[in-house]
Amino acid sequence: MIIALLRLMRLYYSLPLAVGYIVILSYLTGGNLAPVLDKVVLSFFSLLAIISASYVFNDICDIEIDKINCTQRMLAAGRVKRQTAFIWSMVLLVTGMILGGFCGLPFFLVIASIAGMLVCYDMFSKRMGVFKDVLVAILMTSLYPLAFTLTESTQTPRLSVLYIHPVWLFLSSLGYEMLKDLRDMKGDSQVHGQDFNYCKDKRFVIISRVLVVAGSLVTLLPFILGYCKHIYLAISIVAIILAIASTFQKPSVAIRYIYTDIFIITAGSMADLLVLGP
Q1: Which of the listed residues 50, 85, 156, 191 has the most CB atoms within 10 Å of its CB?
Q2: What confidence tens digit (pLDDT) does each residue in 161-171 have?
């Protein structure tokens, strides 16, 4: 049961996102997290718990769709009862909010807003059409303003990256979600009986792929402008190659390329800071 509950949290998504938040904080403070380390730890687990709660609640809302599209998920496969999953999602949500309360009022208000938007997304996303993809991209990018609520910024060249990377993450996330729509169209159409033909439009497919490539190209700017160094550049080039390669793949494979793209840019940004300094 414990393993099943952990799998409901989709830690392969929620944990990298929470770690990405730490990378943002590192750039915000010039690599010196020590003065606010207690808040960093609390805010990390607050964010992790809330994101995980959202994934659990999403599986509850989408259980009938998952029986068609993702039969291996815990609820769809019958390995966890719906009531148990709901209780688990509430435990995670309340835990995240309590931890957020110890991080100061600005952080608490923003994390509460994020939690509210996540719940709304889980409940109503299938009625929002392509606008749900925009909402997810906004939620992903909200990690940047969230970090700014925790501590004051330190003036280093790295700080300017935090005004560039939100563009990269928004574009990449939007393209990713649009491709997921294409992958999940069968189950969404059967369960909700709505018209998802907009996903079949060639322009929809083209736009999703252009967004991903455009987002990857944005990652070059921090190096070009002198904010990041050669480790970052090497990773950025790999990310661009992955983004371009994803345009030749079917949606179910392309999203894996994009996931890797986002992951390595995050890891490369941190490595560049740790090895070469602020």
Answers
A1: 50
A2: 999 999 999 99
